[in-house]
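Below is how a single chain appears once it has passed through the pipeline. First comes the sequence as given, then the structure the pipeline wrote out for it. We keep one example in the README because the format questions we get most often are answered faster by looking than by reading.
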Amino acid sequence: MVETLDKVDVVTVGVGWTGGIIAAEAAKEGLTVMGLERGVQRSVDDYQHIHDEFRYGIRYGLMQDVSKETLTFRNNRDERALPMRQMGSFLLGSNVGGSGTHWNGQHWRFLPYDFEIQSMTEERYGADKLGESDGYRWQNWGITYDELEPYFDRMDQTCGISGEENPLGGHRSNPFPTPPMMETPILKKFKDATLGMGLHTHMLPSANLSEQYTNPDGQTLSPCQYCGFCERFACEYNAKSTPETTVIPTALETGNFEIRTNANVVEIITDEDDDSLVSGVRFVDVRTGEEYIQPADIVALTSYVFNNYKLLRVSDIGEQYDPETEEGTLGRNYCYQTFGGSTGFFDDEQFNSFMGAGALGMALDDYNGDEFDHEDLDFLHGGNITVTQTGARPIQSNTVRPDTKAFGSEFKQETIKNYTSTLSVSGQCATSPHKDNYLDIDEDYDDVYGVPLVQLTYNFTDMDRERHRYLAERSGEILEEMGASEVVVNGDLGDYNIVPYQSTHNTGGTVMGDDPEISVVNNYLQHWDRDNLFVVGAGNFAHNSGYNPTATVGALAYRCAEGVIEYSRDQRRLED
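Resulting structure:
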């Protein structure tokens, strides 16, 4: 027996950054909001004594349980896709707060070029540069940076971002809410070298706050302690902007928002009387197995990239992308991220690299976007080059020279010697959308709830490989200028593999745009086929940029929240 619950104005599927933003904004407008979260409730009070590298950094204590739900992977359609049995290439968050709980806090705005990459590339280099004959599918996002900038600003103010002006970034309507983080000797070494090379260096925009800050909603955040436990960890100091420290308490304080945990949504329900609408969602209580229907006037999919796609697919909403015909849009333009970097060995210097913060770093965009001439290069876009001091934790930090054995006394001696005398400079590379990289569902494997797993078909493209090589070489040049005794440049990319860990910057599959022939949602993240269904997250990206995605995801969530509120107002006016 499926129990039908009381109807609400808005239901969000997932309570992380996107679900929290939509809940806060809608609830402040007086709408009743139900947040369905398949994980458990948690807050800063739960994060004491969390500096356990083995439990959280190695055994992924804050992540999704892949024995219950995972995805299958293959490099191409000729291979059989097999399940990811343990966390590997990327780390999927779980519980209230989602991946926003254990992120590093690097808070980049995508470049103006990103949102109009197709038209800007054609204008400067001609249409052939887009590489359509080679299967690349670059497209504009259906929104410009200028249109999205007010929402970027909202996200900055909510999080209290610490930073300084990026000389090569898009314009800002307001300065950063808080000053940049500490400039350490490591960062100063990078800064002096790159400024001497004529590059445009600046501090990273950071959600690890440089000072105490109270945001416009009245939530107060503490200054960072530079403990070095950010990525894969929660922050017990209340010093990292996360959904639990900002938007979720704001939503709860209105009295119009409720979170229901242990609620795994398995279907979006299309309205029986009008197939242009949805009427709610069906979910399973993960503890009891009982099923419920949550009716709602508006449904917002606010979970991770793969789950947003999966719910649309298994609910038969939208047309699945077919790589043979290139018809359909759902699952299209999946992208990932690569890091073209180098390691510098500073044999006569020592650094306090064991201290730091997730977004403590220096950066430059001289090789990002279209800031440099691509006329004679075999790729588009580029990447943001950084040196970061995120905290070198002892289990995961074993930097050795390439010819060192991976075990024994030599390995131990080299690890100890290099622990505080090596630095990495890395280019976070954009990735190219290609017709053969996409999401589907796997007919051979189900999750623990009987729902098919997502099937990922993905490999690095030739553009990805060339871009990666270019950024690695530039990173090596910077390390040489910094005075490294020896520089080891990252090797070339081979085929993509589901292990080891690389990045949790998965994008695409529910792409936004102004044309329903090549996108799933419009620029308010409203589904083209269901008027009261909104889908928001990094799945909306038409390609991946040379940055971390969270700030852009947050800006899209604020844009989506505006669409949700306006849609609700329109419907009430019609009813009146």
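DSSP finds eleven helices and 20 strands in the chain.

See the next section for the split statistics.
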